[in-house]
Each structure stands twice: as structure tokens, then as C-alpha cells.
Amino acid sequence: MLVACFCSVAAWGQRPPKGQVIDRAVASIEGQVITLSQLEFEARVLLVNAGAAAAAFAPLDHDALKASLNAIIDERLATLEADKLEAYPVEAEEVQKAIADFRARFESEAKFKEFLARNEADLQDVGRVLERSLRARRALEGKLRLRVQVTAEDVAAAKAVSPELKDVTDAMVKQRLVNERFQKLVKQELEAARRDVDVRLLGPFSPKSGAGP
User: Fold this and answer.
1) pLDDT tens readout for residues 120-139
2) What is the pTM of this model?
């Protein structure tokens, strides 16, 4: 499925060539389309925010874009129920801090502005991506928090079967178990959501595409 975006006649005085493809759809969630340009921009924001500063300008190959697309879909699925219930809001101050932290990952203000210009984006666009990421994490934590409880018996059992944990503090082992359980439950939750929600990968990311596995 292709998405054609045409410039305003009033703004430019003429229409672009007939049939010219400006963008294309790469996925849809309940009919809401994610375009290739959205994917590339959001992928760079998420990668940079995760510490991969070079991703701001480096080419992103098919595998990197596919992994990012799945992460972006997961975030939207995580917030789908929260949107319906108007739950797990992110305060404006939290978004501003997230933007400031993201901005600080660039070597200079000039580089940050270059990033925005290359992606035809502004601070609001960056903020929307970061806010969704924060809200997705919050929604999953809120839904799964009670299911990742770890007891003293769990810690003792983990130490008993893992010699490398013998000298690790109980607190650190407990946190490790909590993280492992949380990630497992998140995976299960999102897999279930994909079965219940109409999620489609399109174009080069379609299961029928020969561009990648």
C-alpha cells in the first residue's frame, strides 16, 4: 500500500507530478498507518535516546528498521488500552525533561538542529515520540507490576541453581529476577495484543516481502 502526499497548490503554485510517491506505508495498527518517513524518524529518536548517538545520521539498514518498527508497534500496542481508559498520563514536565535529555545526547546544538532539519521535524515531534515511549513503559509496569513480585525463597532458589550468583547480594539477585520476569511478561503481553489487534506489516516489512526474514 502506498501513501501519496501532495504539496499544497496554494503554497507551491503547482501540483507534484502525477503519481509521484512521496511516502509509503510500512505498517498499520487498527487502520492507523505508520509511514516509512515516520519509521525512520522515530527509529532514530528511540535509538539515540537509548544511547546510540550515531544513529541520528548513520544509514539504517533493513534489519535496524525492522527491529525499530517492531519496537514502535509494541509501544503503540502498550498504550492502546491506556488511550481508551485515559490512563497512565505523562506530565508535561516529564516530556520536557525527556526532550532536554535527548537534546543533550548531541555533540552540539548545531547537530541537534541539523537532525531536526534533516527529518523535517520540531521539538513537538520529538516530544511525541518520547512521550509515547514513557507512557508505554508506564502502562506495562502498571499492568504487570503485581505479577513480577519476587520472594526471598525465589532469591534463594536462584542462588542455589546458579553458582555465579553465590557472592551477589540478595538485593541485586532480586532485581535481576524482577527484570527477567518483567521482560518475559511484557513479551507475552505484546504477543497477545498482536493476536487481538489488527496489526499489519506492509511494503518491505510484509511477511510476503523478499526484502528480509
Assistant:
1) 999 999 999 999 999 999 99
2) 0.77
Measured CA to CA, the distance from residue 87 to residue 90 in angstroms comes to 9
- If asked whether residues 39 and 77 sit together in one domain, one would say yes
For residue 86, the 8-state DSSP code is T
Beta partners for residue 29, in sequence order = 32, 199
Least confident of 3-7, 91-95, 151-155, 168-172: 3-7
Secondary structure letter of residue 210 according to DSSP: S
Please give the Cα distance from 5 to 25 (Å, whole number): 11
Phi and psi torsions of 143, nearest 5°: -80, -30
CATH code for the domain of 7: 1.10.4030
Task: Judge whether 210 lies within some domain.
Answer: no
Facing residues of 3 across strands? 23
- Shared domain check, 107 and 23: yes
Show the CA angle centred on residue 20, arms to residues 19 and 23, nearest 5°: 120
Shared domain for 96 and 179, answered yes or no, is no
